[in-house]
Amino acid sequence: MSKLVTSLSLAAALVLSACATSNPDVIQRGDAQRMSQVQDATVLASRSVVIDGSQSGIGGVAGGVTGAIAGSSVGGRRDGQVAGVIGAVAGAVIGNAIERSTTREDALEITVQLRNGERRAIVQAKGAESFNSGDPVILVTTGGKTRVMRAPSVVPAAAPATSS
């Protein structure tokens, strides 16, 4: 029984380690302390989309191993072998489905217009901010990945006093 618990724990860890996010509120460690390019833009439209889950194979392998171990512990030697094969196949299918469903993300497709008139569309996971048509935003690009954020308020600098 402890083999089964160990295998299930390993399978869960492998599936969870394959998870990645496109959430704009989560910055990858490698992007910290790197200079990013910032562009001003205006939101033209925003719509809800879903980022499909990944199928790296880790979920299928982890599920297959877990199913094989669980199945092989059933009955005698011959019954255990048959159940192990069936368990491996069923576990692989279930593990793959779990990986795909745990890596799906609700997202936004945000269409913006840059100051030079060019239009861009960016898909990012839903974060803390919502975007409406006409909202001023900035596009922050780091390491080839772009995220959309609300533009910070800019207070005009006071003009220097002139002496006459």
Automatic annotation (TrEMBL):
First and last residue of the signal peptide: 1-20
Any Pfam family hit: Rick_17kDa_Anti
UniProt source species: Pelomonas nitida
Keywords: Signal
Protein name, entry field: Glycine zipper 2TM domain-containing protein
Keyword Transmembrane helix: no
Ranges for domain Glycine zipper 2TM: 58-99
